[in-house]
Amino acid sequence: MSDTLVQILEGNTFVVSDAKGDIEASSTDPTGLFSFDTRFLSRWVLTVNGQRLTALSTDDLQYFQARFFLVPGSGTVYVDSKLSVIRQREVADGFHEQLRVLNHENDPVDLDIRIEAASDFADLFEVKDALKKKGQYRNEVTGGSLVLRYQRETYVRETWISSSDKASADEKGLTFHVTVPPHGEWATDLDVVVAMGSPQRPADKPVSVHGQRRVHRDMTRGLQKWLQRAPTVDCDWEPLEHIYRRCMTDLAALRFSALTMPDHALPAAGLPWFMTIFGRDSIFTSLQALPFTSELAETTLRALAERQGTRIDDFRDEDPGRILHEMRYGEMTAFEERPHSPYYGNADATMLWLVLLDEYERWTGDNKLVRDLEHAARAALAWIDEYADRQGNGYVSYQRRNAKTGLENQCWKDSWDSISYRNGDLPGFPRATCELQGYAYDAKMRAARLARQIWKDPAFADQLEKEAADLKRRFNRDFWIKDGEYFAVALDADGRQVDSLTSNIGHLLWSGIVDSSKARAVVRHLMSPQMFSGWGVRTLAEGEARYNPIGYHVGTVWPFDNSFIAWGLRRYGYKAEAAAIVAGILEAAEVFDGRLPEAFGGYARALTRYPVQYPTACSPQAWSTGAPLLLLRAGLGLEPNGDHLIVDPALPKRIGNLELLDLPGRWKRIDAFGRGRIDTDRMVRR
Amino acid sequence: MADTCSDHNLAVSNVKNRSAATADPISDYFASLTEPGHIATFEREAATLQFDVADGPTPDSGPSEHWHVTINDGDVSVTRQVLPADAIVHGARADVERIVTGRLNAQAALLRGLLRTEGSMAALMMFQRALPGPPGSTGTVEPLTSEAVMAQRRPK
Asked: Do residues A155 and A334 make contact, with C-beta atoms less than 8 angstroms apart?
């Protein structure tokens, strides 16, 4: 298998192949055609007269389309072929592949062109954990189509393969016996459809998992329309325009439609393995993108409310009012071997959903959505008080009830060692991490505004504000580490402070829970050499026992994290510090050719000169894609105020002039201008 | 699968021998929907759903009984008639019984092919919010000490 993998996708359907367009997956190899968290093709190999092909070039034309230029033969440095083969592939409800064979000779050629196909129908979880299948396979030829079929009890999945040109199909593939005229061409269209089979009835045509067949030709137009609708960025610092375009294109690729709302898009978490609804990731990305598009936020709010928890379910960590964590559609979820139908184990998405609801209304003025979702909002608020306070001390905390397949850390830093004491010890459960208290405070303050202005319930508004004020007072007392002058990352099961210094304190600024008298000390920590690498704020401060510059949540720099910290710095008036983060992360984006990774190394900028990418499987990641958008907002100081948009720029000098044109919102369209005046070079320590 | 089916049939015949009030979880469930008459999670929502419960082992093996649910801004009414609906759910009695008593998750059942549905996915998604959770779920869990967490992480 070639080292270069080519991936194209649409919604939750994606194809990962080698540079030739072939798929040869092993049980743990992440190549194949995937849809609804299931691999529908694990083998898809093209041969001409029994010979494999060699790739001359591969083009990702669009995120859903790729083209492969091939010649027969393999393994030589010198290619002298009389044939060319072009495969052009587009993802739809499965994929569509046009296969063209060009004869460059003066004589006709007889060819056996064969596509070998097979599927292991692996669940994504099985690919990840290398688990064994429990059902049976059967391949059959039905009316010229090859149908690959998997059945376990009543669970049936099928892959239908057919072609426009007549093929002789057998259980392992399709063969075309063709004669290509001199300097002529032969072409066929291959159609691969992923289907839900029925255990009872023999199928005569595929029943698409997607309900209806989708037309791939519309997709190019859809992408163009999306880009045309987006605001325009003009900037003296040229990389910014490139970064912005990259973000908007990647955001388009990350759009995902829930089955209940096929015509609306929300952001999935990441490509390709996280193309599903994630409460936290979809909300954060929608928040980041709000100044540029409100469509993602609207769909996210509705889709998450539709699936809001209503009952106690320990396996799924579900409670009434809780917003879901992750939704999956694969075999292990179907047989309740995994809890993702959906799984609710997060402690933050419910509060963040409320924050998004208010922020969405502030930008769009869409009162109707806020009224439609009043019940869901009240249920979410009730969850904070009735179900999220697992220690009974007035703070939001988490502990999984599904100890086997549930999530241990239910905050955004969800790896096992992300929450620790300074000495490296891990706290017990439940854990009340600090940013959760900030989100709870912000959620109540924002909900109070909605209650007063839109739900017309001033008594409820008063009550929420009173609760929020009380939470803020207690929080500033109980989480504040006096001698260190920062907030503990958490309170442990005994109410003791978990005392490591983390980037979570930046989220506290964003939420507004920090007493103004304590803000300066918090900012000093965030911008200190222990925390600020020159590119951004580290997840865990240098000097803590578990600090590791390439540890997932214990020392790396996360662009998404930093974008919210920058927003928080603006909220407390620290313009120059916000500008330093804007500069650091955008300059990192320039190095990564416009596409920020999920995380990069926490090494000091002066040491490595370039940001060191953290190896992760997913790219682009939704909230990294959204980070530059939120940084633009923070840099320009964009803040909706009634029917107006306040613009209060504080930009790094390098940016020069920046114009954001046609920002959508309750003001219809508005332009924002800024000029870089802040010398961030000293702060970013290049 | 054949084994499971015959179990289902056994269960069904046992249920039928018992008294009506406790033996029919499906009737009990639909009655419980109309008892309060108003369900908060359905406020500002409107949908109609038809449930066709088959006595045989598969969603489509007849004869079946019908339940029709109308939801209008939180108000719920149920009839035994066959009426037009935004969404139709077909399921075998034993599976539907497990769903309305919280012993089988509806979304999992749908993915597994135990339910066959037609029409609006949005109506189905809304309706599943009124299904009960698993009978054994308590919502509580014993706290874990720092020592216990550290012990789990120590190399064995």
From this structure: yes
